[in-house]
Request: fold
Amino acid sequence: MDTETMIALASAAIGGGTGAIAFWQARIARRQARIAQETADLAQRQANAAEQQAKAAEDQVALMLRQLDAEDAERREARGPAFETKHRHRIDGAPARWCVTRFELTQTAGPALAEVTVTVAGNGVFGIWAGGEALASAYTQPGPVSTGFTITVDVAVDPTSTDKTPVLFTLECRAQEGADNWRRSQTSHVPAYSRISSPARRSFR
Reply:
């Protein structure tokens, strides 16, 4: 074999080896790129999972706080006042366009109150009468109001009212100590017609 042939063969061998090396380098590069992508995907999945876990933890904390708030509200309501509403009689002295019924609202349980504001509502219920020609939208009983205390409210209703006419009382109660406030509702009915003496004039707001 002459020298030129040997050189040609050697060059071919070197070229083939270089090509093989390039092939394997490219293959390794692709594999490394795939591994890098898989690593990045895994990192993203882990980040997503961590984010979901953090959100779940936040939701759990928020739920616990809502439960605690609800329990606090229940305890506050439980220690609040309770009332019993009784009616006495319709009373005289009111303008003919109204019939006035005197109701008694007695505190039966709960803490002492700084004041209780009473409003009335119902079909055919016009307002609270304090004597004279005017009606008030609310009556505020100053404190202290405590268990056994009775608030008297004279309610003006339509003269055609019967003993089936309901009167809804809403009592806004403010604690004598602390910052607690409670709302209580009571329902009573206009009694059968009879009369008692006219009440003394009182201050309303």
Helices lie at 3-78.
